[in-house]
């Protein structure tokens, strides 16, 4: 039987012991063996702290976000084989989708957050700058850097893929290397996904390691700066947290443990209402998805006392319709538990629940294409606790399977009190259309819950469900649930980051943070900052504008244009008792006038105003005052661009408006989209002629079989096709891929060297030469390039077919020619 290999210190290593046999949860057949005996855990942790930390922490947050995306795309292409293994864990197709593609989705989400909101630096400036001196020469702020250690991540058996990826998404993005320790059960699925992560070649050396089997004494070697993330039982979690190596060192510990989650049906949600039907559906789903093996599953069903019978009947009928059996069968809606060991443990907990509460539903016991003898199947079980304030077993014992307990309540006060008797839960839900009931119940139960999910007819269609943790929201809970926090958007990174206060002069803070601080030195030059590409802009680049004197007419005209007739701008007789001496200029006029002073009218790399982050007005501006503006590049944010957008970044500009007395009247931060410099040549005829002057008959090709003249004639044919001479008769790219190919024209990725043009002869031969020599070919090419420029000026709406990219307009043809010319000019070493 195959032994699962472990991946530590950069090698795939097999354990030396007998290992743990792993079985198919549906058929009982052995699948693999997990074994960690003989592994040097001390060396593994040291390898992560040294090699892994050095490689990951030196990357920028932006680049680590791009890394997550590349890994997720690589895994997504190979998902079919993961599903085939997931069925062996007892998971249905839907269960597997949540685990597998839910995991990939977490990587994609964090990649997107990084590329939109995190800096292109290895550190992250957290919060605003604090002025901590009277004259502003001494400032303070905070930066976040990767904690210098390794993260040991111990995952549960219920989500072999998502459990690994949701933890790695934040640790890898934070720049902290990780050792993944999945539960042995289902680890054969984790192992295959992990293998592909390594094979992708995207992750730097030492970033991740994998231990498939028992953890042994791995936690004996954690030390200051390391972290432990644990998902599992509270009992085990508390033992790990109290280990001398963890408790005695500065080891960060995050626990996500047991959770007796509840769902509350509103007092008004009687049978026949949308909320009653939604409640039954939600409870059934949470009892049967993953066969109830979810840390967020509904364990306590809190129902108005007058509706207990209705809910019991409706839920029993819904569960009757849920067919149990082999996940590979189309009929199956609920699979098995992950193994016989877990079955015996759930059964033990069911018997404990029976000691104090009544089992009112035990399910249908028929299986689809499976047997109870071979698989780990269990029918759904519904208990009734008729006195939930006296019988505490329902609030103390969690059967981690398709098991839940009904309990009655009288009013919102009782509903919240029952919810809190779980002593800390990951999630509690309220299904109601009564906003007063929802509001009163939710804030009263919030202290004992990590998440509150409200469901009713208004959000049902788009709801993600009671049991679905989302990457952008915190996953964790107080008390019994472990007191931990995972994900939660960018907040999830803080667990892995060291926060450090930085103090110094404005110039020192600018040097450290790469963000301009007021009072720091400005850099003035003859080139307008708006005429610089994103790569050329430097933090501190500044512009001092000419002055503009504000007039009475300005104030009156802005009132009329904006319809802002606030009395302070229009009625001098109403100013008694105000802060104004006379009618004052509108604040937004001052900001608009400032923009008029600092913008560059000439077309340049600045694409658009992206937003206004903050704006404050400090002193009134009256008619007769003269304003001057200082524009300074404050911060640069790299930006991922999709589809048919110009590759660009965001530049934040500090706008300081002063009056004739040098008093600051307005400070704002504006954001602009600034184009990145294209790596492709400019299509101007003069530029192309200059490049071609270096091409001779003897110029060798760096790749491919073309001669210099064949290359020029090939480019000329491309220009003629863009003029419709002749009109290409077909596009070789399948319709379903065409949009993706056209989108690729807009990015800055070069054309591949090994791409074979589909319209050229398939035998690899090249077309016969048309012109008598290279000089004639050059001249004809330039003449047709001139025609191209004129043609699209006269016919800006024209579209013509391209053999690879389909029908292209003026903009797309220009982008295509830029890439194509650059590709072949580089082929002959001309640029």
Automatic annotation (TrEMBL):
InterPro entries: Ald_DH/histidinol_DH, Ald_DH_C, Ald_DH_N, Aldehyde_DH_dom, DUF1569, HotDog_dom_sf, MaoC-like_dom, PaaN-DH. It comes from the Bacteria. Gene3D superfamilies: Aldehyde Dehydrogenase, Chain A, domain 1, Aldehyde Dehydrogenase, Chain A, domain 2, Hotdog Thioesterase. Residues 460-484 are annotated as: Disordered. GO terms for molecular function: hydrolase activity; oxidoreductase activity, acting on the aldehyde or oxo group of donors, NAD or NADP as acceptor. Keywords: Hydrolase, Oxidoreductase. The keyword Hydrolase applies. Residues 12-499 form the Aldehyde dehydrogenase domain. Residues 539-639 form the MaoC-like domain. PANTHER family: ALDEHYDE DEHYDROGENASE B-RELATED. NCBIfam families: PaaN-DH, PRK11903.1. This is Oxepin-CoA hydrolase / 3-oxo-5,6-dehydrosuberyl-CoA semialdehyde dehydrogenase.
């Amino acid at each position: 039987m195959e032994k699962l290999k472990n991946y530590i210190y950069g090698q795939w290593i097999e354990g030396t012991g007998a290992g743990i046999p792993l079985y198919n949860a549906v058929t009982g057949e052995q699948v693999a063996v997990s074994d960690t005996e003989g592994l040097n855990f001390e060396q593994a942790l040291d390898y992560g702290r040294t090699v892994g930390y050095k490689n990951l922490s030196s990357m920028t947050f932006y680049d680590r976000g791009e890394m997550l995306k590349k890994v997720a795309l690589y895994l997504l292409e190979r998902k079919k084989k993961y599903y085939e293994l997931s069925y062996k864990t007892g998971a249905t197709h839907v269960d597997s989708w949540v685990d597998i593609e839910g995991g990939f989705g977490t990587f994609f989400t964090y990649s997107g957050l990084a590329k939109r909101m995190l800096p292109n630096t290895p550190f992250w400036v957290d919060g605003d700058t604090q002025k901590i001196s009277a004259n502003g020469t001494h400032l303070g702020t905070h930066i976040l850097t990767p904690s210098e250690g390794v993260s040991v991540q111990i995952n549960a058996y219920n989500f072999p893929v998502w459990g690994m990826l949701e933890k790695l998404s934040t640790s890898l993005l934070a720049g902290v290397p990780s050792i993944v320790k999945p539960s042995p059960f289902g680890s054969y699925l984790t192992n295959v996904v992990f293998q592909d992560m390594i094979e992708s070649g995207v992750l730097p050396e030492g970033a991740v390691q994998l231990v498939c089997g028992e953890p042994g004494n791995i936690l004996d070697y954690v030390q200051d700066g390391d972290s432990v993330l644990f998902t599992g039982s509270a009992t085990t979690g508390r033992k790990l947290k109290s280990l001398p190596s963890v408790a005695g060192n500065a080891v960060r510990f995050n626990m996500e443990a047991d959770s007796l989650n509840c769902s509350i049906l509103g007092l008004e949600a009687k049978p026949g209402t949308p909320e009653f039907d939604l409640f039954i559906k939600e409870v059934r789903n949470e009892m049967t998805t993953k066969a109830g093996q979810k840390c967020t599953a509904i364990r306590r069903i809190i129902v108005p006392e007058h509706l207990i019978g209705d809910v019991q009947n409706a839920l029993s009928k819904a569960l009757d319709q849920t067919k149990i059996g082999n996940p590979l069968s189309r009929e199956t809606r609920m699979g098995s538990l992950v193994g016989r060991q877990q079955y015996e443990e759930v059964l033990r907990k069911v018997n404990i629940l029976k000691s104090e509460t009544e089992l009112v539903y035990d399910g249908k016991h028929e299986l689809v294409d499976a047997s109870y003898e071979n698989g780990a199947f269990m029918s759904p079980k519904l208990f009734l606790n008729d006195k939930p304030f006296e019988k505490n077993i329902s609030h103390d014992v969690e059967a981690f399977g398709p098991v839940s307990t009904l309990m009655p309540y009288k009013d919102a006060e009782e509903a919240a009190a029952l919810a809190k008797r779980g002593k800390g839960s990951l999630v509690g839900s309220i299904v109601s259309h009564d906003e007063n009931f929802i509001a009163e119940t939710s804030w009263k139960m919030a202290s004992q819950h990590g998440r509150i999910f409200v469901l009713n007819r208004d959000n049902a269609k788009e709801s993600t469900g009671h049991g679905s943790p989302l990457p952008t929201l915190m996953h964790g809970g107080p008390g019994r649930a472990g007191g931990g926090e995972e994900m939660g958007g960018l907040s999830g990174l803080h667990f892995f980051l060291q926060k450090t206060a930085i103090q110094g002069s404005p110039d020192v803070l600018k040097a450290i943070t790469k963000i301009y601080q007021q009072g720091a030195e400005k850099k003035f030059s003859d080139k307008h900052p708006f005429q610089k590409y994103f790569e050329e802009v430097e933090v501190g680049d500044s512009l001092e504008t000419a002055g503009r004197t504000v007039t009475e007419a300005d104030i009156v005209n802005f009132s009329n244009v904006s319809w802002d007739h606030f009395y302070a701008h229009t009625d001098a007789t109403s100013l008694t008792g105000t802060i104004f001496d006379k009618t004052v200029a509108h604040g937004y006029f001052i900001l608009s006038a400032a923009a008029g002073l600092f913008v560059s009218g000439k077309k340049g790399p600045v694409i658009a105003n992206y937003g206004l982050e903050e704006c404050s007005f400090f002193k009134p501006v009256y008619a007769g005052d003269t304003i001057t503006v200082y524009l300074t590049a404050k911060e640069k944010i790299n930006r991922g661009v999709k589809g048919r957008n110009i590759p660009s970044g965001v530049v934040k500009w500090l706008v300081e408006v002063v009056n004739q007395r040098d008093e600051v009247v307005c400070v704002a931060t504006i954001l602009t989209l600034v184009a990145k410099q294209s790596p492709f040549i400019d299509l101007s005829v003069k530029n192309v002629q200059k490049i071609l002057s270096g091409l001779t008959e003897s110029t060798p090709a760096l790749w491919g079989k073309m001669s210099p003249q064949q290359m020029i004639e090939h480019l000329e044919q491309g220009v003629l096709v863009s003029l419709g001479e002749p009109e290409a008769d077909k596009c070789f790219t399948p319709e379903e891929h065409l949009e993706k190919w056209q989108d690729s024209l807009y990015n800055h990725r070069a054309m591949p060297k090994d791409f074979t043009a589909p319209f050229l002869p398939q035998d690899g031969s090249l077309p016969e030469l048309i012109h008598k020599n290279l000089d004639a070919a050059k001249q004809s090419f330039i003449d047709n390039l001139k025609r191209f420029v004129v043609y699209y000026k006269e016919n800006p709406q024209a579209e013509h077919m391209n053999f690879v990219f389909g029908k292209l307009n003026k903009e797309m043809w220009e982008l295509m020619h830029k890439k194509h010319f650059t590709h072949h000019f580089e082929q002959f070493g001309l640029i």
